[in-house]
TrEMBL record:
Single GO MF annotation: NADH dehydrogenase (ubiquinone) activity
Alphabetical UniProt keywords: Electron transport, Membrane, Mitochondrion, NAD, Respiratory chain, Translocase, Transmembrane, Transmembrane helix, Transport, Ubiquinone
Subcellular compartments: Mitochondrion membrane
Protein name: NADH-ubiquinone oxidoreductase chain 3
Tagged with keyword DNA damage: no
Membrane-spanning parts: 6-24, 55-75, 87-106
This protein's GO CC annotations: mitochondrial membrane; NADH dehydrogenase complex
Principal cellular location given in the protein's record: mitochondrion
The reaction(s) this protein catalyses: a ubiquinone + NADH + 5 H(+)(in) = a ubiquinol + NAD(+) + 4 H(+)(out)
Origin species: Physignathus cocincinus (Chinese water dragon)
InterPro entries xrefs: NADH_UbQ/plastoQ_OxRdtase_su3, NDAH_ubi_oxred_su3_sf
EC number: 7.1.1.2
Top-rank lineage group of the source organism: Eukaryota
Length: 114
């Protein structure tokens, strides 16, 4: 199979899925489908718990800094021919993230309780 045929097939499948979604009617939810299931018993309380936005923000910050580590660790092995380029890229990434962290800190996004 040629590359052009493969690309056409890979483009046609999502298009067919989108067309099927628009053609098929949506199912209307009834009371049984929207209520939480608790082993046949009536629900004891609200199934939706309040979620702390601050916890979510801290988790996002953690993911960003984790991504920074994932980008910085292989950098010396990837660019071992030109150490000045490696140092420049490392300092650029760390500077950008430090500026972002300082901005978040100044804005109060890292405060757990307000």
């Amino acid at each position: 199979m040629t590359t052009a045929k493969t690309i056409m097939i890979m483009a046609a499948i999502p298009q067919m899925m989108v067309i099927m979604i628009t053609i098929l009617p949506p199912k209307t939810p009834d009371m049984q489908k929207t209520s939480p299931y608790e082993c046949g018993f009536d629900p004891l309380g609200n199934s939706r718990l309040p979620f702390s936005l601050q916890f979510f923000l801290i988790a996002i910050f953690f993911l960003l800094f984790d991504l920074e580590i994932a980008l910085l660790l292989p950098l010396p092995w990837a660019m071992n021919m030109a150490p000045t380029t490696t140092i420049t890229w490392t300092l650029t990434l760390m500077t950008l993230l430090a500026i972002g962290l300082a901005y978040e800190w100044i804005q109060g996004a890292l405060e757990w309780s307000k």
